[in-house]
Structures are given as C-alpha cells and as structure tokens.
Design brief:
Layout (H helix, E strand, L loop, with lengths): L7 E5 L10 H9 L2 H6 L1 E5 L5 H8 L5 E4 L16 H6 L4 E4 L2 H6 L4 H13 L3 E6 L3 H5 L3 H12 L10 E4 L13 H19 L7 E5 L4 H8 L6 E4 L6 H10 L4
Helix pairs in contact: 1-11, 6-8, 8-9, 10-11
The structure holds 2-phosphoglycolic acid.
Length: about 250
C-alpha cells in the first residue's frame, strides 16, 4: 500500500442478482460502519438491471455503484448495448471495463477497452480497467509482458490517475480458488505501476491497482498487504455480505 491511496474493495456481481437479492446491499451498508468507511472505499457493481435500485439502496452510505461494461458511444443504434452515460444516469460512478470474461467471451481487444475507457471518462465515470494473463501465458513466462502490454493498449493517455483504477486479475485465478503467490502478485503490481509511470509520470502513484481472482476472507489479508495492492476486485465472495465485509475489513490499514 502506497501512501495516499485509499484501499478500494469492489464487488463484481457479474450476471447474478434479481430484485429479490437487493437485501444484500442493505446488509453491506449495515456493516459499513463509520470506522471502516473512514479508511476503505467500497464499490458494488451489480448487473445493469439493478443499477438504479442498488444506487437508491446505497444512497448516502458512501458505497459507490458501478456498471460492468459500457459501449464506446454515448447513444445510437446498438441493440442491447448500454452507454457510459446511461450507467451514470442510473446512478453509477464507476464502470468495470475489459474484464477477462468480456475479453474472452465478447472478443474485446485492448483497443476496444481503451475506447470504452474514453467513454467512461467522457461520462464522468471512473474506469476500472481489468488486465490479466492466462495460465498458458504465465507458464510460458510471458505474464508480465502480456499484462504490461494490456496496460499500454487499454489505458487512455489522458486518464486522470486519481480517477483511474486498474484491476490485475490472472484469468486462471478467477472463480477457481487458485491465487498467485504473494511474490508473484508483488512482482506484477510493481510492473503495472512502472508501466503506468512510464505513461503518466509521478501521477501513476495515484492510480489504485486492485488484485482480483478468488479473493476470499481467508486470503484477503495476505493479498491486500502486498505492496502496490490498493484493494480487491471480488467476484463470488461479493455475493455474501459477511464475506465482502470481511474482505473490506482486511483492507483497512488504519
Ligand atoms: P472471483 O472473481 O472473485 O469469483 O474469482 C473475480 C472477478 O472476476 O472479478
């Protein structure tokens, strides 16, 4: 953890959640006590159908709400897509972009992710730009080259460091219960910070770099203590309020 960067713990609900599950937000809100709120930022990214309702349920709590994807354009004939402006209108302040499930399942390239990040900035949203290597890339010794290449290709030149979040999520760690070693996480986050510094100069110190991939209450403290790990992007465990809150408490350095 570098000085000046508040930890951010973000929940990515993915394609999970009906209105019947909105109580989860109330539970997270109830556990986000003033002590925790003083030192850790929370972000909840529900499916777009629940954005407005989650934003209403979180109103006044300090819990931020985000989308999970956005189209590069503000409006137009793009059936089924949502613009960053629409997410903002529904109550979002952040948007996850380039998650590996979108890079893989929707053939999203670095160039497209960068366009989406431009769109987020245009709409006043904080982009949470995801990067991460596959197992074959790690085993081939190419993890750092792949991830720093994704940073170069996906992060817009004019991104404001203090309004940019990067999430390092090794593809093989997502939803598998497997995590990289603490040494591997430290090496990767330092490489990401250096790549950002090459682009942004000293401002790169203000970018929050989250670790994601099988973060659970049992491993959060160890992962969140790694230098340059400024929080977590949490999938499965963000669907259980007690687990999400335990991870948030593990991020508290105060
Ligand atoms: P997981 O997902 O915590 O369920 O591994 C993380 C993510 O994909 O953001």
């Amino acid at each position: 953890m570098g000085t000046g960067r508040r930890p951010l713990v973000a929940g990515n609900w993915k394609m999970n959640g009906l209105r019947a599950h909105l109580a989860l937000v109330g539970e997270v809100r109830a556990g986000y006590d003033p002590g925790l709120a003083r030192s850790v930022d929370l972000l909840v990214c529900p499916p777009a159908t629940l954005l407005h309702a989650v934003a209403e349920a979180a109103r006044g709590s300090g819990i931020a709400v985000g989308g999970q994807d956005a189209h590069p354009l503000a409006a137009g004939a793009f059936t089924g897509d949502l613009s960053a402006e629409m997410l903002a209108d529904a109550g979002a302040s952040h948007v996850i972009l380039g998650h590996s499930e979108r890079r893989e399942g929707h053939a999203e390239t670095d160039a497209l992710v960068r366009e989406k990040a431009f769109a987020a900035i245009r709409a006043g949203l904080v982009p949470v730009i995801c990067v991460g290597e596959t197992l074959a890339e790690r085993e081939g010794g190419r993890a750092i080259a792949v991830v720093t290449g994704q940073i170069r290709g996906s992060v817009p030149d004019d991104a404001r460091p203090d309004r940019t979040v990067v999430a390092y999520e090794p593809v093989w760690a997502i939803g598998t219960g497997r995590t990289p070693t603490v040494a591997d996480v430290a090496e990767m986050h330092a490489a990401i910070r250096a790549e950002l510094a090459a682009r942004m100069g000293g401002g790169a110190e203000d970018v929050r770099i989250l670790y994601g991939g099988s973060v659970k209450p049992g491993n959060a403290r160890e992962l969140l203590a790694v230098e340059n790990v400024d929080g977590a992007l949490v999938g499965g465990a963000s669907l259980v309020a007690a687990d999400f809150l335990a991870i948030a408490r593990a991020a508290d350095r105060s």
